[in-house]
From TrEMBL:
Taxonomic classification: Bacteria, Bacillati, Actinomycetota, Actinomycetes, Pseudonocardiales
Domain F5/8 type C: 20-157
Protein name: Discoidin domain-containing protein
TM region(s), chain numbering: none
Record bears the keyword Signal: yes
Region: Disordered, residue numbers: 159-197
Organism: Lentzea indica
The keyword Amino-acid biosynthesis appears for this protein: no
Alphabetized UniProt keyword annotations: Signal
Secretion signal span: 1-27
Amino acid sequence: MVGRRTALGALGLVLGLLAAGTISASAADPLVSGGKAVTASSIEGLGFEAAKAVDGSTSTRWASVEGHDPEWLRVDLGSTHTISRVKLNWEVAYAKTYRVQTSSDGSTWTDVYSTSAGDGGVDDLTVSGSGRYVRVYGTARGTTYGYSLWEFEVYGVGGGTNPPTTTTTTPPPVPGRRPAEVQARPPVGQQPRPAGR
C-alpha cells in the first residue's frame, strides 16, 4: 500500500510540475541556424559581416550601418522548418521596435513576433511559425548606432508547413548600399565529401 501511495504521489508531483511549466513534456527543438547562409540589409564594415551572427561565438557580431532604419538580418535554413524559438543576443546597438518573420520564398513575410518595447540584452522568444527563411526586421533603433547582434539563433525542426502569409514589403535598398550576403562555411572536418570517396 505504501508503494502505491508513493507512486501516486510521484505521478501527482510530475503532473503538477508539467502544469506549472517547470518541466517540459517534450525535448527542446535543436538549433537550426548555426552556420547557415545569412543576408543582411547592410553591414557597418569589415569584421561585422552577417555570418558573424550565426557562427556560435559571442565574441563576433553582425552590425548594420549606423543611424538608419529599417535594417534586417535574414538566415536561410535551406529547407522549410517549423520554428519554435528565436534567441537574439543584442550588442549595445539594439532594436527598440522589431519583428521576427518567416518566409517560404524570401520575399513574402509572416510576423511570428513583434515588439515596440525592445530593451537590448538577450531576447529569448517562444514563437510559432514555419518557413525556409527567418529574419529580424528592425524598424526603430534603441540607440543612435545601427543594429547589432552577437548571435541570431533559430530553433525548430525540419519539414514544417508554410502557414497563410501576410505580405510585408521590403523597402528598396538605399542608393550606394548593397545587401551584404555571406555564405557561412561548415567548420573544418565537417566539409562535405566529394561523391565516390
